[in-house]
Amino acid sequence: RGYLEGRKMASAFNMLRSNDLIWPYFIANYMKGKEPSPFDLLYWNSDATRMPAANHAFYLRNCYLKNRLSTGEMEVAGETLDLGKVKAPIYNLATREDHIAPPRSVFYGSSFFGGKVTFVLSGSGHIAGVINPPSRDKYQYWTGPAPRGDRYDEWAEKAKEHPGSWWPHWQHWIEARNKTRVKPPKMGGGKFKPIEDAPGSYVRVKS
Protein backbone atom coordinates (compact mmCIF):
# COMPACT_ATOMS: atom_id res chain seq x y z
CA ARG A 1 0.00 0.00 0.00
CA GLY A 2 2.91 2.34 0.59
CA TYR A 3 1.86 3.21 4.15
CA LEU A 4 1.39 1.69 7.59
CA GLU A 5 -2.30 1.53 8.47
CA GLY A 6 -3.08 3.67 11.50
CA ARG A 7 -5.08 0.93 13.21
CA LYS A 8 -2.08 -1.41 13.11
CA MET A 9 0.14 1.12 14.82
CA ALA A 10 -2.55 1.78 17.44
CA SER A 11 -2.87 -1.95 18.09
CA ALA A 12 0.89 -2.24 18.58
CA PHE A 13 0.83 0.53 21.19
CA ASN A 14 -2.19 -1.03 22.92
CA MET A 15 -0.35 -4.35 23.19
CA LEU A 16 2.30 -2.63 25.30
CA ARG A 17 -0.38 -2.29 27.99
CA SER A 18 -2.81 -5.03 27.06
CA ASN A 19 -4.11 -5.46 30.63
CA ASP A 20 -5.36 -1.86 30.56
CA LEU A 21 -6.05 -1.16 26.90
CA ILE A 22 -7.29 -4.46 25.43
CA TRP A 23 -8.61 -7.02 27.91
CA PRO A 24 -10.97 -4.80 29.95
CA TYR A 25 -12.83 -3.84 26.76
CA PHE A 26 -12.84 -7.43 25.52
CA ILE A 27 -14.39 -8.65 28.77
CA ALA A 28 -16.92 -5.81 29.10
CA ASN A 29 -17.97 -5.58 25.44
CA TYR A 30 -17.61 -9.11 24.08
CA MET A 31 -18.16 -11.30 27.13
CA LYS A 32 -20.61 -9.14 29.11
CA GLY A 33 -22.29 -7.41 26.18
CA LYS A 34 -21.87 -3.93 27.61
CA GLU A 35 -21.71 -0.96 25.28
CA PRO A 36 -18.61 1.20 25.80
CA SER A 37 -19.25 4.52 27.54
CA PRO A 38 -18.67 7.67 25.46
CA PHE A 39 -15.17 9.03 26.08
CA ASP A 40 -13.96 11.97 24.00
CA LEU A 41 -10.23 11.27 24.48
CA LEU A 42 -10.51 7.62 23.50
CA TYR A 43 -12.62 8.51 20.46
CA TRP A 44 -9.99 10.99 19.35
CA ASN A 45 -7.23 8.47 20.05
CA SER A 46 -8.97 5.79 17.98
CA ASP A 47 -8.53 7.91 14.85
CA ALA A 48 -4.92 6.93 14.26
CA THR A 49 -2.89 8.51 11.46
CA ARG A 50 -1.42 6.50 8.61
CA MET A 51 2.35 6.73 8.19
CA PRO A 52 4.14 6.50 4.83
CA ALA A 53 6.28 3.37 4.55
CA ALA A 54 9.49 5.31 3.84
CA ASN A 55 8.88 7.59 6.82
CA HIS A 56 8.18 4.66 9.14
CA ALA A 57 11.25 2.71 8.02
CA PHE A 58 13.51 5.77 8.29
CA TYR A 59 12.20 6.59 11.76
CA LEU A 60 12.64 3.07 13.16
CA ARG A 61 16.05 2.57 11.59
CA ASN A 62 17.56 5.90 12.64
CA CYS A 63 15.87 6.57 15.98
CA TYR A 64 15.61 3.03 17.35
CA LEU A 65 17.83 0.46 15.66
CA LYS A 66 20.86 2.72 15.23
CA ASN A 67 19.90 5.51 17.66
CA ARG A 68 21.52 8.10 15.41
CA LEU A 69 19.61 11.12 16.71
CA SER A 70 21.20 10.92 20.17
CA THR A 71 24.70 10.49 18.73
CA GLY A 72 24.43 13.40 16.30
CA GLU A 73 24.66 11.17 13.21
CA MET A 74 21.09 11.37 11.90
CA GLU A 75 20.69 13.12 8.54
CA VAL A 76 17.55 14.69 7.07
CA ALA A 77 17.60 16.28 3.61
CA GLY A 78 21.40 16.32 3.65
CA GLU A 79 21.63 18.07 7.04
CA THR A 80 23.04 16.39 10.15
CA LEU A 81 20.87 16.84 13.23
CA ASP A 82 22.78 17.83 16.36
CA LEU A 83 20.60 18.24 19.45
CA GLY A 84 23.52 19.84 21.24
CA LYS A 85 23.14 22.89 19.00
CA VAL A 86 19.62 23.51 20.28
CA LYS A 87 20.26 26.38 22.69
CA ALA A 88 16.68 27.59 23.11
CA PRO A 89 15.11 26.92 26.53
CA ILE A 90 13.03 23.73 26.53
CA TYR A 91 10.01 22.72 28.60
CA ASN A 92 10.23 18.94 28.53
CA LEU A 93 7.09 17.15 29.77
CA ALA A 94 6.79 13.46 30.62
CA THR A 95 3.83 11.58 32.07
CA ARG A 96 4.21 9.15 34.92
CA GLU A 97 2.35 6.18 33.39
CA ASP A 98 3.35 6.73 29.76
CA HIS A 99 3.97 3.37 28.04
CA ILE A 100 5.11 4.92 24.74
CA ALA A 101 7.51 7.60 25.98
CA PRO A 102 8.48 6.41 29.49
CA PRO A 103 9.42 9.26 31.86
CA ARG A 104 12.85 7.77 32.48
CA SER A 105 13.61 7.94 28.74
CA VAL A 106 12.23 11.48 28.40
CA PHE A 107 14.35 12.56 31.37
CA TYR A 108 17.50 11.05 29.86
CA GLY A 109 16.72 12.66 26.50
CA SER A 110 16.86 16.08 28.17
CA SER A 111 20.64 15.77 28.54
CA PHE A 112 21.27 15.83 24.80
CA PHE A 113 20.13 19.42 24.27
CA GLY A 114 22.60 22.29 24.42
CA GLY A 115 20.35 24.75 26.26
CA LYS A 116 18.55 24.87 29.59
CA VAL A 117 15.88 22.19 30.01
CA THR A 118 13.00 22.33 32.48
CA PHE A 119 11.77 18.79 33.12
CA VAL A 120 8.22 18.36 34.43
CA LEU A 121 6.47 15.09 35.26
CA SER A 122 2.68 14.90 34.95
CA GLY A 123 0.38 12.35 36.52
CA SER A 124 -1.58 9.82 34.43
CA GLY A 125 -0.48 8.58 31.01
CA HIS A 126 0.33 9.33 27.40
CA ILE A 127 -2.90 11.20 26.59
CA ALA A 128 -4.80 12.13 29.75
CA GLY A 129 -1.62 13.35 31.43
CA VAL A 130 -1.07 15.88 28.65
CA ILE A 131 -4.66 16.89 27.85
CA ASN A 132 -5.50 17.88 31.40
CA PRO A 133 -7.10 21.35 31.57
CA PRO A 134 -7.09 23.09 34.98
CA SER A 135 -10.90 23.19 35.02
CA ARG A 136 -11.03 19.44 35.61
CA ASP A 137 -8.85 19.65 38.73
CA LYS A 138 -7.43 16.17 38.11
CA TYR A 139 -4.11 14.44 38.68
CA GLN A 140 -0.93 16.25 39.69
CA TYR A 141 2.53 17.14 38.44
CA TRP A 142 6.07 17.24 39.80
CA THR A 143 8.85 19.79 39.42
CA GLY A 144 12.45 19.46 40.49
CA PRO A 145 16.07 20.31 39.76
CA ALA A 146 17.49 20.44 36.26
CA PRO A 147 17.69 16.98 34.65
CA ARG A 148 21.15 15.41 34.70
CA GLY A 149 22.02 12.34 32.63
CA ASP A 150 20.19 9.19 33.64
CA ARG A 151 19.59 10.21 37.28
CA TYR A 152 15.82 9.97 37.05
CA ASP A 153 15.37 8.18 40.38
CA GLU A 154 17.42 10.83 42.14
CA TRP A 155 15.33 13.57 40.52
CA ALA A 156 12.06 11.85 41.47
CA GLU A 157 13.12 11.67 45.13
CA LYS A 158 13.74 15.42 45.26
CA ALA A 159 10.79 16.47 43.08
CA LYS A 160 7.94 18.49 44.58
CA GLU A 161 4.37 17.37 43.94
CA HIS A 162 1.72 19.91 42.92
CA PRO A 163 -2.03 19.18 42.69
CA GLY A 164 -3.95 19.66 39.46
CA SER A 165 -2.94 20.47 35.90
CA TRP A 166 0.59 21.29 34.76
CA TRP A 167 -0.79 23.85 32.27
CA PRO A 168 -0.55 26.91 34.60
CA HIS A 169 3.07 26.02 35.38
CA TRP A 170 3.80 25.88 31.66
CA GLN A 171 2.08 29.24 31.14
CA HIS A 172 4.19 30.85 33.86
CA TRP A 173 7.29 29.32 32.27
CA ILE A 174 6.38 30.88 28.91
CA GLU A 175 5.49 34.28 30.37
CA ALA A 176 8.80 34.40 32.24
CA ARG A 177 10.49 34.42 28.84
CA ASN A 178 8.05 36.51 26.84
CA LYS A 179 4.87 38.14 28.14
CA THR A 180 3.84 39.42 24.72
CA ARG A 181 0.43 38.21 23.65
CA VAL A 182 -0.97 38.33 20.14
CA LYS A 183 -4.53 38.07 18.94
CA PRO A 184 -5.45 34.84 17.16
CA PRO A 185 -5.72 35.18 13.38
CA LYS A 186 -9.17 35.74 11.96
CA MET A 187 -10.61 32.48 10.72
CA GLY A 188 -10.99 32.38 6.96
CA GLY A 189 -9.01 35.56 6.51
CA GLY A 190 -6.54 36.26 3.73
CA LYS A 191 -6.54 34.39 0.45
CA PHE A 192 -7.73 31.11 1.95
CA LYS A 193 -11.50 31.05 2.23
CA PRO A 194 -13.50 28.65 4.43
CA ILE A 195 -14.42 25.44 2.63
CA GLU A 196 -17.23 24.53 5.00
CA ASP A 197 -18.51 25.11 8.53
CA ALA A 198 -16.55 23.84 11.51
CA PRO A 199 -15.55 21.26 12.50
CA GLY A 200 -15.34 20.17 8.84
CA SER A 201 -16.24 16.87 7.24
CA TYR A 202 -12.62 15.69 7.25
CA VAL A 203 -12.59 15.27 11.04
CA ARG A 204 -15.31 12.65 10.69
CA VAL A 205 -13.24 10.53 8.30
CA LYS A 206 -11.44 7.68 10.07
CA SER A 207 -8.36 5.88 8.79
Question: How would you summarize the topology of this molecule?
Answer:
Elements: E1 3-4, H1 6-15, H2 18-21, H3 23-31, H4 40-46, E2 51-52, H5 53-65, H6 68-71, E3 75-76, E4 79-80, E5 90-95, H7 103-109, E6 117-122, E7 140-143, H8 152-158, E8 160-163, H9 167-175
Report on the structure:
The structure is a single chain. The chain is α+β, with helices and mostly antiparallel strands. 34% of the residues lie in helices and 14% in strands. Strand 5 (90-95), helix 7 (103-109) and strand 6 (117-122) form a beta-alpha-beta unit. It has two domains: 3-71, no CATH class; 82-175, no CATH class. The strands form three sheets. It has a four-stranded mixed beta sheet with strand order 5-6-7-8, covered by helices on one side. A two-stranded antiparallel sheet has the order 1-2. A two-stranded antiparallel ribbon has the order 3-4. 10% of the residues are buried.
**Secondary structure: helix percent:** 25-40%
Count of structural domains = 2
What is the N-to-C succession of helices and strands?
Answer: EHHHHEHHEEEHEEHEH
Proportion in β-strands: 5-15%
The number of helical elements comes to 9
Gross geometry: globular
Question: How many distinct beta strands?
Answer: 8
Instruction: Give the radius of gyration.
Output: 20 Å
- The quaternary structure here is single chain
Given helix and strand content, the structural type is: alpha+beta
> Unreliable stretches, pLDDT < 50, 5 or more residues?
none
